[in-house]
Amino acid sequence: MVRIEAVDTLLIDVPTIRPHVLAMATMHCQTICLVRIRCSDGTEGIGEASTIGGLSYGPESPEGIQLAIDTYFRPVLLTCDAGRPASAMAALSAAIVDNFFAKCAIETALLDAQGKRFGLPLSELLGGRVRDNVPVLWTLASGDTKSDIEEAERMLEARRHEAFKLKIGKRSVAEDVAHVAAIKRALGDRASIRVDVNQAWSETDARLGLRLLVDAGVDLVEQPIEGANRAGLARLRALGLIPIMADEALRGPNDALAIASIGAADVFSVKIEQSGGLSAARRVYAIAEAAGVELYGGTMLESGVGTIASAQLFATFPKLHWGTELFGPLLLTEEILAQPLVYGDFALALPTGPGLGIALDEERLAFFRRGASRRTISIPTRAGA
Ligand code: MUC
Ligand code: MG
Q1: CA-CA distance, 181 to 164, in Å (whole number)?
Q2: Which CATH fold topology does 4-119 show?
Q3: Which of 110, 112, 272, 313 counts the most CB atoms within 10 A of its CB?
Q4: Ligand 1 contact via 52 beta carbon (within 6 Å)
Q5: How confident is the model over 98-122, as pLDDT tens digits?
């Protein structure tokens, strides 16, 4: 038995490169909850739980996740065999209801350690890679149409992204559609444009919005109405106007089954945290595949840790029709990995090392850690940020 000797958590506050304006919150900073699990064989695994805008996106906050892990997860984990991640996760599920984001961080850390133990990248542990990189879109959410167009042009020029997700739902349907249409007009066929309403519309708003978005040349609409209103989502999809993607509606395999059963979505945004971990996210994938629902790799705007954990899983998906949005680290002014993730040619490259295939930059962690004294260490800002 490989004993779990320590489960440590820390919060890191990192500014964003610009305000990120969503229907429910404007982000100026991302708070990352990191978990480290130290094992008796000398291996260490890391995992991340991050969310968007405190408690404005979902029921778990970074501070709550840290408290839950420190108080309730740790005592269970200290009795578990680190060499058996699935059995440790089963013990946690038996003791702790929901807390999906926290469970994801723990499962990521256990699998990272297991991968290092066996010298295998996480994707190989999870059944095997079918690709060495994943396509990545960028979210335009500065809140200003002109800035968004300039940002998109820079991304296209640099060959970093050729698909863009626009965050709408904060303004009226007419104002939002005018903003989206102006961006699509400027970019034309050079880019795929999708929108994410983050549940902000009523069903009548959505009936109007979907029609107008089709005329504007949009390819996909994410979570136009409240996640709990599955029947409404099914009614909107039945209009047959434009592909509909489920995000907030999709919290794990049970939701996946319920949504697929009533045909409420064309596409699933699979998120490892929202699913309850990497294994649960694989089950979401399996349900989608069996039901003929298309696949997209979602993000909670995690740092490099959660981002590469997601990429390791998505690299095992034979089908990934709509690519991914794994750009989280690029939205942050600071790098917390010793070696940044590699983006280029519209994709994120998968590392080849064991486990997650990444290492943390300890000096930066010490600097950005919540409660750290910033006077003692001087850290240069990421070049070009
Ligand atoms: C969401 O709702 O999809 C993903 C990209 C982004 O900008 O926000 C997130 C959350
Ligand atoms: Mg979304």
Answers
A1: 13
A2: Enolase-like; domain 1 (3.30.390)
A3: 272
A4: yes
A5: 999 999 999 999 999 999 999 999 9
